[in-house]
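User: I'm designing a mutation panel for Mannan endo-1,4-beta-mannosidase and want to avoid disrupting the core. Could you give me a predicted structure to guide residue selection? Please restate the sequence first so the numbering is unambiguous.

Assistant: Good idea. Sequence first, for numbering, then the predicted structure tokens:
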Amino acid sequence: MGLLVSLATIQVGYAAPGLKLIDSKATQETKALYHNLHKLARKHILFGHQHATEYGHGWSGEAGRSDVKSVTGSHPAVIGVDFSGLSGRSPEAIERTKLSLRKQIADTYDRGGVVTVAWHFSNPVTPQTGFNWKDSVSAPAVASIIPGGSHHEQYKAILQTLGSLANSVKGKDGKLVPMFFRPYHEFDGGWFWWGKPHCKRDDFIALWRFTVSYLRDSLQVHNFIYTFSPDCLFKTEEEYLDRYPGDAWVDVLGVDNYADFGRNGRYNLQAGIAKLKIVSDHAEKAGKLAAFTETGLESIPDTTWWTNTLLKSLKAEKLKLAYVLVWRNDERSPTHFYAPYPGQASAPDFLRFYKDPYTLFETDLPNLYRWKKWLIF
């Protein structure tokens, strides 16, 4: 957005009715982030990019760099990381991953940004198949890792690795860094081993509830904000909530949607907006945050996609969404990228998207991690 625009005076020390985290022991910084984003979502949305500061189009591991910053002068407000490297590998490799994640997460927090965590983790029963479902090879593992399953203890050990990381990532202020934790995303599709065709509804709900309970209550992780995000294979609220574990187990209602926003040249913005409205409306009714947890257009061949497709959709129907995140920019592939880099065809339009008062980037953010009586925005 460039320059922060003062649009309203919002009191953030006051919690909206029913708006509370599912973790009663959540850190003060985690609580503050959750409530501050709820207030900001009335008039703004935070822009996010997966792996933005780890690597980008043609580069990797350069301190202070992101493709978004190279275009706009600011990092994204939300940085996506992934816990994929915390299981199914050697102990040495896992420790290296922990070191890298700690730095990315802590640096984002220290700059005032927000961290969201995806979890593409390898099938615990058939680790050789990775996180994707491979017909006739992958095992339907969900039933095996819930309580009573053959690989339940192995799953607990994986969660212990996640918990040890979560409880060791601190900012320069010595505080644990809050994170949006988004496990088992796009579960309504069949492309991941936890997908709908590969597990029973009750088993998926049991897996979600155990995961939250074990991290929160047994491992004492109190800096996670639990985010529920199916893909866009629903048309009604009832379908959206088909595998919902319940309000006591979810903090954020999200949706991943590439299909309605230009994938393979196909646009159905009316359908995409309708799905965002289902998510936004139900979140408000349930006292939760809502978010557009993944979207984007690979290679961004549509030079006005940012303002004519994404921004128009986000502004429709008075949606209240905390953030929108586009997928990563691969460092080697010439075509696998979802945010512009300098010289990319959509960069001028992205600058218009950036400058719109509705969108917030990292340099636009107030201190989201402190309770203040008044937040000027």
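For picking mutation sites, this is relevant: DSSP finds ten helices and 13 strands in the chain. The first strand starts at residue 9 and ends at 10.
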